[in-house]
Amino acid sequence: MRILVINCGSSSIKYQVIDALNEHCLLKETIEKVGEEVTIDKALEQVVAAVTDQTIDAVGHRVVHGGDEFSDATLIDDDVVNRIEKWTSLAPLHNPFNLQGIAVARKLFPNIPHVAVFDTAFHARMPRRASTYAIDKQLAEQHKIKRYGFHGTSHNYVAHKAAAFLQRPLAELRIISLHLGNGASTCAVEMGHSTETSMGMTPLEGLVMGTRAGDLDAGVVLHLQREANLGVDEVDQLLNRNSGLKGLSGIGNDLRDIEAAAAEGDDNARAAIASFAHRVRKYIGAYASTMGGVDAIILTGGIGENSKTMRRRIMQRFGFLGITLDEDLNHDAEVSHEQPVICISEPHSRVKVLVVKTNEELMIAKQTLAVAHKDVEVENPGPIPIAVSARHIHLDKDTFAELFGEDAELEHYKDLSQPGQFAATQKLNLVGPRNRIDGVRILGPLRSKNQVEVSRTDEFVLGVDAPVRDSGRVKDSAPMTLEGPKGTVHLEEGLICARRHIHMHTDDAKRFGVKHNDEVEVAIVGGPRDLVFGDVLIRVSPGYALEMHIDTDEANAAELSKNSDGQLVYTDVLGANAQLKIKHT
Ligand code: AMP
Fold first, then answer.
1. Are 382 and 318 within one domain?
2. What string of DSSP letters covers 422-484?
3. Residues forming beta bridges with residue 167, ordered by sequence position
4. Which of 180, 208, 255 to mutate to test the pocket of ligand 1 (most atoms within 8 A of CB)?
5. Ligand 1: residues whose CB is within 6 Å?
6. What's the CA-to-centroid distance between 404 and ligand 1, angstroms?
């Protein structure tokens, strides 16, 4: 499967032909001075001429802004083009050129699928608390003002690479990805999903970049307009093109030149380097707290991959977070196509620090293949029964004894659908800082760890903030007080908002073409309202019966009725091994 990947920018067209299955780049070119010496049409005709001897199966287009409308790579048709056009006002320097590239390429390659891969897609499901600016809600909605985030293709790719390198499921990791290039951004990747990122409505927010200022008090813009008499375009030019490393150093946007000048004693160059590193460190601390910890930190992009001195500046003095950089490994690390991931932390470092060579084009090629490849559609594997989990509690032996007395036994009330599981007659009260919820049922049998599962609505009633977690993963979750007939227990951790999941027997997993820890989308059918749940986790065990578990809030949103079933839409198993997205019709 040969994929032509086109990145059509304002002044250049970069393209590659990639064999997406064996990850070989067959051709790589850049056409410069597009718009000046050559039109986009002419430039793309050059591309066609260059790839004639390569049989192209599909074209993948990089599209910068897909707003919150595109959370996955999407097959391009006229409707999709119109929808991309809607977001042009938020990315005037990028989307018009991406769209022009799409229009010309569709004419030149009319008989093969074209797929749009969005920089924003990976962040499209970012939690609301991270994507919202605290301004008037109506105005924000009207003008689509929110944080969209960019570099998503790169953050997604390097996170997959890191998980494969660490030989751990991405769904278990809390990663801070630092994409440090001419454009630079950070991303908190929690269980494979972007939950925070430093770029916002446009790629201007966040880190100090080559020519962009990054974070800035909005008051600065007002002040420049009022006091320095700068017009809109002048402020735009200042913040996007003449700030960042370039503005601070007065040398240019290339860190190599700035590092050389700093070594010669240039104070502006030193200040630029120090500001760059400081801003990145600030974000690392922030994301370690928003995720409640961190397992791995990734450095990528031109600076992250190549500047050992900047890596060292950024990663030093993080012992308090459990990070110990190995100076020698850092010094010697040279990532390459052959060795795209290198660990630069000491073996005992609790948090792994990895230098990862990013490859956005390969990721675009893989996603294009996944979307364009229709042959893998399989037969409808049948409906998935849905069960609504009311709030409930799992207890360990000691906690149960503290709450109900040494001699108490967990009493069977009724069987649950999962073999061996039962609802107990005993109930407990949850006591939160704001309110209490009485009479919450305990589920048996007793477990090795305490776990209290509540819905979002319950969280707000109790006045607590619980992380969304897979059942069983309670480390660093929220605290909760349990009140029983014989005692009160304060749990330091154990409160979670359970992640929706599907229990599957091993045979079911085969039939549905999925595996343990896959994430799928499930459409709810048979009810009054069409709703598709994303990020549904697959849990496979020979001891499970087929059933999807959602909480009461989710069931209400779906207006679930007795006739409702789940229908697998597809499995998004696009990971480091280039597996295909399997469509279930
Ligand atoms: P990117 O936008 O990811 O291609 O990154 C390009 C930037 O990486 C350049 O502008 C440089 O600032 C930086 N860079 C590349 N190589 C080095 C290096 N060996 N040392 C320091 N900075 C580098």
1. no
2. EEEEEEEEEE-SS-EEEEEEEEES-BSS-EEEE-HHHHHHHT----EE-TT--TT-EEEEEE-
3. none
4. 255
5. 181-182, 210, 253-256, 259, 301-303, 306-307
6. 62
Nearest atom (ligand 1) to Cα of 358: 3
For residue 310, give the ligand 1 atom closest to its CA: 21
Structural domain includes residue 142: no
| Euclidean distance between CA atoms 547 and 259, whole angstroms | 58
Give yes or no: residues 237 and 330 share one domain: yes
Nearest atom, ligand 1, residue 254 CA = 12
For residue range 207-226, list pLDDT tens digits in order. Answer: 999 999 999 999 999 999 99
Judge if 303 and 198 occupy the same domain. yes
Burial degree of 246 (CB within 10 A; 0-12, 13-18, 19+): buried
Point out the ligand 1 atom lying closest to the alpha carbon of residue 245.
Answer: 12
Distance CA 283, CA 564 (A): 44
Catalytic residue selected from 119, 458, 535, 551: 119
Collapsed DSSP state (helix, strand, coil) of residue 264: coil
- pTM equals 0.85
CA of 362 to the centre of ligand 1 (A): 20
Q: Whose CA is nearest to atom 8 of ligand 1?
A: 302
Asked if 76 and 170 sit in the same domain, the reply is no
Substitution site in 180, 199, 303 for ligand 1 pocket (most atoms within 8 Å of beta carbon): 303
Same-domain check for residues 480 and 574: yes
119 belongs to the catalytic site: yes
Least confident of 12-21, 149-158, 189-198, 210-219: 12-21
430 found inside a domain: yes
CA-CA distances (angstroms) from residue 74 to 109, 112, 113, 379? 17, 14, 10, 22
Q: Are 444 and 498 in a shared domain? A: yes
Pocket test for ligand 1, best of 12, 199, 256 (most atoms within 8 A of CB): 256
pLDDT number for residue 379: 61
Q: Does residue 369 lie in a domain region? A: no
Domain that holds residue 536: 374-585
Rounded distance between C-alpha atoms, residue 311 and residue 316, angstroms = 8
- Confirm whether 137 is domain-assigned: no
Domain finish residue from 338, 364, 390: 364
pLDDT at 581: 42
Average pLDDT, the chain: 92
pLDDT in tens, 345-386: 999 999 999 999 999 999 999 999 988 875 545 566 788 999
The number of domains in the chain is 3
Q: pLDDT tens-digit profile of 221-254?
A: 999 999 999 999 999 999 999 999 999 999 999 9
Two tokens at 398?
């000691």
